[in-house]
Amino acid sequence: MAEMTQKGETPEVLFWVGCAGSFDDRSKKITKAFVDLLQDAKVSFAVLGPEESCTGDPAKRSGNEFLFQMQASTNIEVLNGYEVKKIVTACPHCFNTLKNEYPQLGGHYQVLHHTQFLHQLIEEGRLKVDTKTSYKGKKITFHDPCYLGRANKEYEAPRALIEKLSAELIEMKSCKEKGLCCGAGGAQMFKDAEKGDKEVNIERTEQALDTKPEIIAAGCPFCNAMLHDGVKNKGKEGKVAVLDVAQLLAQTESL
Amino acid sequence: MYLSSIIFAIVFFVAIGMFTRNVRRIIRNIKLGQKTNRSDQKSKRWKHMARIAMGQSKMTVRPIAGFLHIIVYVGFIVINIELLEIIVDGFLGTHRIFSPYLGSTYDVLIATFEIFALLVIIAVSAFWIRRNIMRIRRFLKPEMKGWPKKDADYILYIELVLMFLFLTMNASDYWLQQHPEGQSYYTQAGHFPISSLLTPLFDGMSYATVVTIERTSWWLHIIGILAFLNYLYYSKHLHIILAFPNTFYANLNPLGRFSHSETVANEVKLMMDPSADPYASPAVESEPISFGAADVKDLNRIQLMNAYSCTECGRCTDVCPANQTGKKLSPRKIMMDTRDRLEQVGKQLDRGLAIDDKTLLDHHISREELWACTTCNACVEACPISIDPLSIIMDMRQYLVMEQSSAPSELNAMMSNIENNGAPWPFNQQDRINWINE
Question: Are B223 and B333 members of one domain?
Fold first, then answer.
């Protein structure tokens, strides 16, 4: 972003990478897949890089409103400094926080989840999807991230993308409004679960595996990690893949 | 003035007086909470209430329970039209006073009430079977042991008894209307498709006996209704009233937007403002600010109204990922505990006592419950009357973190990572861009 500003350029959109997309090995693949798609669609975009900091979502969900607002204020200063208008992110937690919790602190942006943005690009004809993909007829089930689905009522964009792949979209017994959490939200990702008789991600993975899918699709790096661990725990690694919707699309691009 | 009219007036006004006292208690208790502004977007709020409370749109998400509930709900409203006539008759000592004015409409109305009475009996019986014979998981959770279970059953029994009294009253009336001696008082009025099937039961009885049956069931029916009205305060059945304001004042923002603290915002603004004088004392000496909620007085009034409105149906708990996987957290229990604690505080106020130092936190809701929440909003989405258990959990977490610094140690580590290097993990902020070259 800094380089573009120096050159006097204004990108169409700022890609907010998020902590998972920046540091977690599995999530970095999502980041790269999404960047591939942006480049294919000839979208001019920028990232903040070292100027990006945590949105504050896990701090807020933990109850640390102070730390959240410190993070938010710092980020808003950076974003407003670059006069950012439109942000896209592959993380529903960043998406929700930027979209819903920054305006009260002076951060007003058009914020899109990457599945929404990709769907727009396809609708506008900027991104082409090969309909004769290797996914044709494959069974794919989609896990609704809580902060994309219930929190922001976006259920259709990721599903529309999967349908573009000519794949067979199968729904789990609890989906959309009733979708079961992967177990990572509310800062649970960063701590051990309380005592119980099961891990939430195992429960959700079982629901996903009940649909006998070849691929479990997700739209959140944390859900992705939780479900990946669940599949591994169930001994299905190598048989059932857990992939972000952007990864599915990017793979068709290269085929 | 008849003696019966005097007795009726006494019974009626005592019941209404007691009910008013209960309503005042509820309002006083709710006002113990913090003020919050939810009077914006009026037209959107009316629509929300019309759709969710009046239209029962969320009830039918579960079709069987939803369908049965709509029968009882519509039946309740429809049969209450009859209640109006019963009250007028009670005061004036008349009998079926509306019939001469309404003519054939009256017949249609009475017939409709009867059909609904039968449907309510069927639906309530089905509810009883669901609660007592079928092993439906959400009705068997630990928080339902004791009074909550009894309360649920009592409501069903009362409704059954009221409907049977209503039909007995009509059946005996219909029998008396046919009787030569009854023509003067029990004039031909109403059409009785259901209770007319019961009239053969009275054949062979004397006129006086059937009059006694008719009068007894008339009196028991109205006394039963007035007693039920006063039972509401002690029961989860309060939802029949509070579901309406509760949906009206619901949170209309996206569920992902958690509550914003203006107090914290001011502190942060001050910290980030280079021109602020760090040694300046506040212009006005204000009360010490506290963050989050440890007890009911720290919660806002909507949250406290939520607690009184909860019907303990358990749809929230049923969809809670933590509860589904055997953790202690149950969103329904959060609401029940909040109401219990609020009642406890209210009772102390009634007796003019100082409020004890027990709190909602720890004495009712444990930290283990609070930290098990994934903030997934499934409970909020599932509630048929827009109750928000998550907001209470979040306010209590905020108290734990900002007042007591007692988050689980892993979360403290996560938060210090955010403070130090801008990510929940211990990675250097400068490395955020490294993925490009990997």
Answer: no
